[in-house]
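Amino Acid Chain and Its Fold in Token Form
===========================================
What this section holds: a protein sequence and its matching fold, both as plain text.
Structure line: whole-number tokens from a learned vocabulary of local backbone shapes, matched to residues.
Purpose: to set a sequence beside its fold so the mapping can be learned.
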Amino acid sequence: MTLPILLIVIGIVLALHQARLASIRPVACLDWPSMELAPFIVCPETLGPLEPRDGGYWSPLAERLYPVREDLVFMGYPQRDAAMIAETMEEEHDWQGTAEVAARNLEYVRANAARAVDFINMIRPLVDVDGRPPRALELGCGNGWVSWLLAEAGFETWMCDFESNSLATGLNLKHPNIGDGRRFVVDARYPPIADGSMDLVLFKEFVHHVSDHEPLFREANRVLRKGGLMAMMEPLRSVRQRIYEIRHPDPHKGHHMTSARDYLRSIRRAGFEIARQAYVYEERSGQRPLAVRMRRRAISAIDPSRTTGDWFTRLHFHLIGGAQLVVMARKAREVQPPERPAMTPISPDSLDLEDQDLRPYGEFPAVLGEAATRLE
């Protein structure tokens, strides 16, 4: 065999070998270094700096690699909470992290996107930043559909959720304001964000998944700049709901809804001043005529600026329920943040969705795009 032919054969063999390696490598792994993290992204355990390494980011202080898979950075959760996290992670995976529940989740987004847009329209005038787009962090984001609406409203957006498959169902929600390295698989109570880096921290129906609310609000205080805004939309317990739950216990694990008074007390103790408070009523069907009339009376007292309404609205809300509490709170002072616990890493192998599993989520961008036309 002549030398040129030998070189050609060797080249073909090497090419076939490389192709074989590529075929057995997990499809979801990124070729390093295709992702860059913002400078204020830090180790969630130590709040120390991260260094790019092959396959992820290295924390010198924690002596741990945080791997990257797809557009997700895998981090961790407190070791002390391992049993609770495993239980709630499994429930979240089954509830919103599979192909089988895509149709139900799409209907939820279709029904709730307009309310999320109203929420963001209330937030935007309260976030004033000179010379750059405002930075937003959504904690407990699910698949990140609200984060996409924030991005469409002009916010540079980052997001955290501890269930990788739920987060991955939103990977098709692309946006210029949500670049690579913005999705973190991490306990949202301990975001990997340096002190004073954010202009907005947003909770949409996440706070009631946390048993102790005040440390969560203190963590929001930590990552916000002075004068930054925390925005929360949460369902509350009413007297009617409490009676119902005595007879019909909540089947979902880890729900800790409470009263508006308790939430507001915790928010103020966490260093915030309330800038705005509102009740937002949900659409309901199948109610008796008297209940419908009472609800309409309560809604009619809420003016266009979304104040809390008159005495009847407040009484109706606490006794009958059917509304959500919206709070905008501005960081007024620094407070002691929660202690950083030792953390257990979340493995990239927890991500078991494949391309065919994500296809049923393909309609989400169109639904959100339609809702976003109402952004102010």
